[in-house]
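Reopening: ARHGEF26 still failing for me.
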Amino acid sequence: FFTELEARHQNNIFIEDISDIVEKHTASTFDPYVKYCTNEVYQQRTLQKLLATNPSFKEVLSRIESHEDCRNLPMISFLILPMQ
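Support: Ran it again with your exact input. Result attached.
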């Protein structure tokens, strides 16, 4: 995938379209990504359920989110990151 993108870039620095390359590789290479994105709604529901029903989880997650490495971002921002 990356090799083909590089070749397209070498051919013309102003890439107008890469959809053909992406389409070629999506059937097999991106299966985990597609599954992850498809399950996004379940991720959010599970997170909300855990926060509402599990005080220990909520406390630990709060500590993790406030850690400087997380830059005070909520867990949901990390869950949706691959889709952005």
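The chain has two domains: 2-29, 39-83. If you still see a failure, please send the error message rather than a screenshot.
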